[in-house]
Amino acid sequence: MATREGTWRYRNRFGDSFGRTYFRRFPPGVVSSLGIGTYLGDATDAVDDRYHDALVTAFESGVNLADTAINYRCQRSERVVGRALSSAEVARDEVVVATKGGFLPFDGSPPDDPSRYVREAFLDTGLLAPDDLARGSHALSPDFLDAMLDRSLSNLGLDRVDLYYVHNPETQLHVRSREAVYDLLEAAFERLEQRRADGDVGAYGVATWNAFRVPPDHDQYLSLAEVVDRAETAAERVGAEESGLAAVQLPFNVAMADAFTRAAHGDGGEQSALEYAHERGLHVFTSASIGQGDLARSLPPDVDVELAGDTAAQRALNFARSAPGVTASLVGTASRAHVAENVAAGTFDPLGARAFDAVFE
Predict the structure, then answer these.
(1) What whole-number distance in Å separates Cα of residue 307 and Cα of residue 321?
(2) Where residue 338 sits, what CATH number does that domain have?
(3) Which of 84, 192, 316, 352 has CA atoms 20 to 30 A from the CA of 123?
């Protein structure tokens, strides 16, 4: 598991190579403000090998954050993260590993008949009931998340994951009420509090796509304040001194800045997701930081001129990690050359708060 001693050791080894605030506080120590994502790519051995080499390069170049999920690339992404951790010249206690559970994962490759696979692997086994499913591919029942966490630990080859996200809970809003989804989250958090007490999870969070950046009247909206309250209730129920809810993950980039610009959270809905998260001490990790590659080609000119970086990708990453309250920005890459370019973004200082605000004036 990542430790204070290990992550600070890593920071002291690499910190002088980067700009100010490149390493940022994250329990139990510090984490690089750039992380490697593992979502994109086909479920093939060739892509596995490219991810492995890219991850090893990142770990050995100043990135001590890897983000994955059990469903990414049919469980292959978790497995390659574990393989890269074993191969790289880093200690396990120096690296923060985050993964997610919620979507039903295929195993190794997409099956010829996905419906039959889901029935045989999850319904016939009793792990899930048909009513647990949303869109035939998503579930949040505690027993299911428990089993997926165990499988993730096996895939990663780890005895503990540093950050475990409940993945896209807004998917459940397609089949049940908002209040029912909050109840599901509370039950999931209670189980994760138990796993945290057992030492299997360092902290947990909620990874979303729409939930925290859409307006309250949107059918995919979830209140961050209510999510925090449900985590606190779950912690009290298991006797924890404080909630283990530590992070949210959401899309944020130049073209998708809703998490900063839209007031939709807090008791009166007067705060953005970033403002509310910062106020409550939650760490924010941004996904789609370069728009899944689109922003690596060009940025809006009026924003581009405000940002530091030699390439559009670097400037896009520096925009995302400059946002107030952001702990780290994730970027997916299966190329060692792209890793080098992305890591170099961290050699430039991020925008200060005033300069960042000026972008939106």
Answers:
(1) 11
(2) 3.20.20.100
(3) 192
